[in-house]
């Protein structure tokens, strides 16, 4: 065990094991022995050869990193418990969140479905709203600073944050932030504002949808050059989120989406397309036809049967009996299909699904084992099937046809 791992800070915070390292220091898994709870401890290492004045600036920035989230008690911002000066350097004690970052999820799984990104974006808008109302600008929103703890989305790392009432701690002409996610006006030397954070949110959502941020290039200077001189590329996988992402990535901050407009567009995207009238389902059409024909069956005889069959075939999609019968026959239909909004069963191990409630929790984000099934009875659901040939799918009791290998299908469902 290293000397650091034996260290106890302020006689109560014991370092247990190292979680990870970054440019500014190390994050430790710790234990608060006074309150008997797990904590995360960020050890900030001072750069070498700092002048006394720069050391003071560094300490002030550290205290600001702790104070910013400490003022913002909300589910979507990491909670800070304490700041300790030990061995000549500062340590920040925070709540322990054992969850991957958005950056890690993108690296592991590739681009995320719009429904998942919408859920993440909505939570981050709430976090930014809380920070901005308190006069705090984050200035470094990016996927590595977003933790995904189940349905909870947590914004972390306020190391570059500043409040409207504090003095700037950045040297003139010294660029701070992550070039791939920084707003154009900040990269050009202007002061960061809440709308700068909204640009960073747009770049973060873009990266989640496309697998990389919009202006990322081979090095910092090339990235900043692209940010200054190139048009914002249109996202290819955003679907209903396109207007949200492009609105947040408007280079002119005065034309950029405001927080309220971003929330409105995002909620519209989560709600799905609006139509004046919903066409009746095939079952409903068949019921009406049977009712009409039964009234005239005495005079029509066998012709009534032909009329029923003909009108059923004119209905959009297969009949309920045909739709609910997979290749194996009716007995192969999972239990609960008739009353569920959505049922998914894996045909093989490539059946990966993502299911969420619009503007609500994520219900599933998993790969099913062969023959394993999931049933969802919620009245409104967004779902993504990543390989339409690997999953049997029933929507409102009707079996959907299989797709081709690798075909991704999106569903916005309402219980009928």
TrEMBL record:
Residue span, Protein kinase domain: 13-270
Q: Which UniProt keywords apply?
A: ATP-binding, Kinase, Membrane, Nucleotide-binding, Serine/threonine-protein kinase, Transferase, Transmembrane, Transmembrane helix
Give residues annotated as binding ATP: 42
> What is the E.C. number?
2.7.11.1
Q: GO molecular function terms here?
A: ATP binding; protein serine/threonine kinase activity
Enzyme class, UniProt record, top EC level: transferase
InterPro entries, per the entry: Kinase-like_dom_sf, NEK_Ser/Thr_kinase, Prot_kinase_dom, Protein_kinase_ATP_BS, Ser/Thr_kinase_AS
Checking Gene3D superfamilies in the record gives:
Phosphorylase Kinase, domain 1, Transferase(Phosphotransferase) domain 1
Bilayer-spanning residue ranges: 284-309
SMART domains recorded: S_TKc (SM00220)
Family matches, as SUPFAM superfamilies: Protein kinase-like (PK-like)
Q: Which family does it belong to?
A: Belongs to the protein kinase superfamily. NEK Ser/Thr protein kinase family. NIMA subfamily.
- Tell me the protein's name: non-specific serine/threonine protein kinase
Species of origin: Actinomadura decatromicini
Instruction: Recall the taxonomic lineage recorded for the source organism.
Output: Bacteria, Bacillati, Actinomycetota, Actinomycetes, Streptosporangiales
